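Q: Fold this one first, please.
A: Sequence and structure below.
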Amino acid sequence: MKNFSFYNPTKILFGEGRIKDIAGEIPRESKILVTYGGGSVKRNGIFDEVIAALPGYNIREFGGIEPNPSFETLMQCVEVVRKNNIDFLVAVGGGSVIDGTKFIAAAALYEGEPWDIVKTYGKVIKRALPFGTVLTLPATGSEMNNGAVITHRASRTKLPFMHPLLYPEFSILDPTKTYTLPPEQIGNGVVDTFVHIVEQYLTYPANGKVQDRFAEGLLLTLIEEGPKAIGQPTDYDVRANLMWCATLGLNGLIGVGVPQDWATHMVGHELTALKGLDHAKTLAVVLPAMLDSRREDKKEKLLQYARRVWGIQTGDDDERIDAAIRKTREFFEIMQVPTRLCDYNISADIIPAIIEQLKTHHMNRLGEKMDVTPELVESILEKCL
């Protein structure tokens, strides 16, 4: 196991009815801006519940943060923050709203060109506004980590950034707030969480036995509970387990001391930026082909994954790896997330553009061994058709 430092200051308030406790986490004199997405939190009453939990506070709102939040929209919110001297943010929504709010928290206090925050992957951040979250769509783990991903529409660029100042102060996780989510969003959330875990687990052995077992337990829970969430939308225990899986899948715990991959995510980001495909759908398309193409480098962990997660015990090494990848693809399909580019009417014509984007963003060596080149990505994408 590698040396590591682990730090996560986010306070989690988990369970039904926890929105009422939000006032205890925000200083009374705060000027609050509540951020949200397309308006579903107003239609389902969650927004009103948040406001009701903050009596006497000075509150403004900003809605319209898109899936794959855009720099252009977020800068409109930054202007609202600056104009009204906002000093605390509350993100009400899923990963996109929370990611966007992280950018707003940093950009509102940044004196240079705000896009530099993203271009430098967060290195130029010196200050950030405090913020909390009310999670409505478990998927990204953004409610308990310090990272975000933002899209620059004008240049069709989607990049991640992170900084220790971008951990939420608190996050409200109420599983009942996910009951009204449509099956497509549930499927996306489960797949997103699954691939987050895989990117930290399916690399090469580092004798991180605790991290491996944590990761395997989360994967098994997703496999067991994911399909139930679609068929039993108001089962509290199912939704609670999925919500906690999503948070633990990317709060830093399972990735400490072990190598991490993230090549699938970087390729997926380019696919989203160019074609607007949902993030989780890009992951479902890319991951099976990525694992197949890199089976030799990942052989030991793939065989462990086959045995411990899918219970595959028979056949030679290649047969077991084939079966594990096939099971992974089948699981995504069970979650109603198609796994081929053709399923989304995307042809091979997109491949050169993705490769060019990767080169433009200096992503010429990806993966846990930094050996995933644009040429390899091209061959991987050909398997995704």
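Q: Good. Now the second chain.
A: Here it is, same layout.
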Amino acid sequence: MKEAAAKNLVLALDDVQDPGNLGTIMRIADWFGIKDIFCSKGTADIYNPKAVQATMGAISRVKIHYTELAKEIASLPASVPVYGTFLEGDIIYDTELSGNGVIIMGNEGNGISREVGKTINRKLYIPNWPAGAATSESLNVAIATAIVCAEFRRRLL
């Protein structure tokens, strides 16, 4: 992870349990040129038929690594930005984003775990519309990943 995150954006998935979400996230990574996804041991198996189908071929272009996620991220140099999505984060559209680092996405029901959350040095928030309105409780993790990746890449245009 050190080399990849120092030079490029990588995704990290913290206990994403639904194989369909995992496969869709791999497809999103492929679309946005993210070549590595690091997964906690509790993340769904990429070889689950539902996950493989959802990748729509991205499984052949994006590398997936299962690891002790919190330890892996904690071992990164302090200069590597580690982003995570939170309801109490800074609005993504107003926040400085880099072309390298780690983007952590959390579990469908519980978000980012406390242990992995301690490694994050930049908290992001995807605002609902209009601000303050009553809306759904949260976004699907694959949809949130797409929004975050699109905003990172938009900044590089």
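Q: Anything worth noting on the second one?
A: The first helix runs from residue 2 to 7.
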